Amino acid sequence: MSNKSRRLYVGFTNDIVSRTVEHKEKLFPNSFTAQYVFDVLVCYEEYCSVIRAKMREKEIKGWRREKKLKLILAQNPDWADLSLEWQDHPGWKLEPQAQLRLKRVKF
Asked: What is the pLDDT of residues 61-74, one digit of tens each?
């Protein structure tokens, strides 16, 4: 994710559409992404394995900014918001009366 200052945020999720909505709607107002208005999805990768996705997240987080920029520019040279293609997805718009419920996952 990025913002208008092109600051970068790297994360992983098992539901990218819902997670992107959470960022855009600032559902966690005290979070880093809400405070710095990370609302543009500039790059994403899909994996079949949660373990591989988590390993890739850690790998990218360890990179210098220049290397992250090369990855983004190779896939999205215009820094377009890639999430705009999902706006017709049923989970895109949250119902005003809907409440977010968090599940605890045991590992």
From this structure: 999 999 999 999 99
